[in-house]
Structure to design on (164 residues):
């Protein structure tokens, strides 16, 4: 006998042995609740998987495409992290400040994806978002490698100066 668990977005039904603990609470982050919350805030959430994937790929491309020195709001993120460290434990403060710091990239990624979907179509928007995220990853890896090489070059020069 195979158990029927229903859709993934539906709450999991607990066995009858858990009945003394009360009924099943509704799923906190169900898609219908997310849509209701977005409507209350006046935000139009992407409703199709290609839109979600395209928006997230553009978000990653924009986030990685700007190095930390020129990334939007880096100084604000550091100040927010300092303020949150006074109130919250360090891990929670860092996670919260990083998630707030990524919000402009998320909104910009959604805007770029929406613009491309409206002007060029779904396949074009997805392909350009994938290409942009790959190029952003290559850029980020190159930037980190050049920083590492510059640091090792500086340490070699310091050692040579000490030898003289």
């Amino acid at each position: 006998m195979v158990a029927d668990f229903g859709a993934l977005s539906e709450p999991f039904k607990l066995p009858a042995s858990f009945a003394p603990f009360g009924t099943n609470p509704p799923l906190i982050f169900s898609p219908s609740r997310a849509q209701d919350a977005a409507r209350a805030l006046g935000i139009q959430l992407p409703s199709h998987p290609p839109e979600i994937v395209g928006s997230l790929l553009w978000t990653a491309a924009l986030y990685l495409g700007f190095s930390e020195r020129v990334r939007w709001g880096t100084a604000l993120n550091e100040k927010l992290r300092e303020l949150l460290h006074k109130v919250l434990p360090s891990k929670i403060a860092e996670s919260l400040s990083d998630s707030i710091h990524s919000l402009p990239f998320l909104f910009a990624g959604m805007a770029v994806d929406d613009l491309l979907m409206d002007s060029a179509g779904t396949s074009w928007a997805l392909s350009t978002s994938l290409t942009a995220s790959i190029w952003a990853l290559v850029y980020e890896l190159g930037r980190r490698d050049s920083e590492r090489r510059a640091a090792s070059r500086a340490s070699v020069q310091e050692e040579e100066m000490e030898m003289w």
Notes: The two ends are 81 Å apart (CA to CA).
